[in-house]
Amino acid sequence: MEARDRAPREPARAGPWANWGTRPGLFRGLDPGEISAIIATARHRRVARRGVFFHQGTRASALHVLLHGRVKLVQTTAEGHQVVVRIVGPGDMFGGVALLGDAAYPATAEAISAGEALAWPGPEIARLLTRHPTLALNALRVLANRLGELQDRYRELATERVERRVAHALARLARQAGRRDERGVRIDMTLTRQALAELAGTTLYTVSRILSAWQARGLIEAGRARVVIRDPHGLIAVAEDLPAGAPAGSREG
User: Fold this and answer.
1) What pLDDT does 245 receive?
2) Around Cβ 109, how many Cβ atoms within 10 Å?
3) Would you call 201 helix, strand, or coil by DSSP?
4) Where does CATH 1.10.10.10 sit in the chain?
5) Is the dihedral of CA 14, 20, 26, 27 positive or negative?
6) In the CATH scheme, what is the code of domain 162-239?
7) Where are the alpha helices (H) located in the chain, listed in sequence order?
């Protein structure tokens, strides 16, 4: 199901973007008036669960910022395998290759849950970047951070054993969508084992085996499509390949 466009809204006094000027991301350092004026030029796009904002390989016609919901960026290889590149949450920019002009989207943006995003066509975002230097600098920072994340993922896939890769994937999700409660850190989104396998570059069987072992050790609590990290320090110790009992953030030698 494709996204549905709606006409731009009038500048808003409040909304989900009310504190975006103080958060890392596209609007950091901009005052509320600037943010409202920029948002007024965007299209609002809504998708149902499993709907698509854009497809891999199509012309990158717009830059997006998510307002509500969760989106996964999925690449399909030449062999037909799907790889989840990133999970996008509210306030995150995606489809940033539209900044580069005549480019194609490198991944499909599929909604994990029903969501809404702001979208700026390429010519409009180019005009805004010229008019707001802080916006342009923020966009460069976001793209640089994404490149760093992809380099980390490549290094993990090339050098780390699968248990560490799964632990890194869960740790990233906890940073992006984690919410503390009395049981630990709940990853506040639907997370199937297949999606986690794609994030970690492994198989459904392997992820199921690892999660079962970690649940027996008390590191996590895994339901059908939900994960609670019961022992965050223990999970980080697995991700960093620390010896049992060593504090997270330390290494021998």
Assistant:
1) 55
2) 25
3) coil
4) 162-239
5) positive
6) 1.10.10.10
7) 32-39, 122-131, 133-159, 162-177, 193-200, 204-217, 232-239
For the chain (length 253 residues), average pLDDT per consecutive 10?
A: 53 57 81 91 94 95 93 86 84 90 90 92 92 94 86 79 92 85 84 86 92 94 86 92 56 37
pLDDT at site 251: 42
Residue 223 φ/ψ, nearest 5 degrees: -100, -165
How much of the chain is helix, strand and coil, in % rounded to 5? 40, 25, 35
Q: Alpha-carbon distance 145 to 149, whole Å?
A: 6
- At residue 182, the pLDDT reads 86
CATH code 2.60.120.10 region(s) in the chain: 4-157
| Fold of the 4-157 domain | Jelly Rolls (2.60.120)
Closest CA to 32 of 47, 16, 14: 14
